[in-house]
Amino acid sequence: MTAREAGRAVAEDARRFFAKSFGGDPTLVVSAAGRVNLIGEHVDYNGGIALPIAIQRRTAVAVRVRDGARVTHINSGGTGGVLRIDHGKLARRRKWTDYPSGVLDQLVGVGINVPGLDVAVASDIPSGSGLSSSAALEVAFDFAVRSALGLDAEPVALALECQRAERQFVGVPCGAMDQLSAACGEQGHAMLMQFAPVQMTPVPFAERVLVVDTATPRSLRASAYSERVAECQTALAAIQRLAPETATLASASLEQVEAAEMPDVPRRRARHVVSECQRVRRVAEALASGAGFPGAEANASHASLRDDYDCSTPELDWIVEHVRPVRGIAGARLTGAGWGGCAIVFGEASALEALTESLPPAYERAIGRAPRTWLVGADDGVRIEA
Ligand code: ADP
Ligand code: MG
Question: Which segments in the chain show pLDDT lower than 50?
Fold first, then answer.
């Protein structure tokens, strides 16, 4: 199945699910992509650069405008029935409808009188595994609603609106990478991404990547993430005492990091951020020149995240150490914030395919949990399916 066909299959699921939930046809079906960050971790909130791909795992949203009350009736496969979101009483309810509610909150907040909507959602992105199903849901929903109402739906502005929805309404202090990937990805390309201001350069990337889910809980993540954000602020403040012109941690040099007076922990966080951005630049240059993904940079990124950023886990370390000696494998690293979630593996297609067979039973023997794996390549961001 090609990427385009896979997207159509999810869109067809959304259309069928719409008919089952509400009767009749939607006016519009759109889909947005999950994402994998190839390299550039914990840099988005430090003014740095990352290199994600949108993947062929997608979330489709089918929508139809309804007369009457300003209420969205919404159903998502597997969640157990149609739910109501009253546009006049938007509030966080700590369930999945917070994501579309957050988007509605943004739309209402800029003065858009969103009419009543029927909405069906279908997805083949595993949710809560680090492939960014939340951003795909926000972006697909926002794009569907804006398009159905004939409103502007420029992908970068749309992505930033969805980021605000997740930060302000859902309460996740996320950077913009997930939403920008879901909205702006390009098939066959990784997106070299800068965040403040947003700037994106597509870089050719025709390889596939093996994603391995550790199947471990990510319960520590939220508090650890906030702690890292604060530690990076401490490091930046220390560097600014020596070099006041330094606006972001990512723009500091390794020499400045070493010269500034600060404790060991913020120094290691800063060292990761600065060195990670250098790795992203070298990877982007290699890919632009037509080379394969430089696996050594992936390995160095993992070591930095493990030793300097303290966000790896024994399970993530096990995966990268297990795959690296395999013939045809170029390198491996954790992807996403860490503290659980997924690792990614780079290398020859046949070697990656063989690992999809051999890795899960080996991991299960060693760790006692069954991991899921996905072979993914670079796909488009948000698009109209029908
Ligand atoms: P990730 O974005 O890495 O998948 P998150 O914890 O950020 O993990 O987001 C997962 C949450 O997003 C789910 O728990 C659910 O609330 C919501 N979600 C994502 N996709 C869907 C979907 N297709 N239908 C309903 N809810 C979804
Ligand atoms: Mg998410």
Answer: none
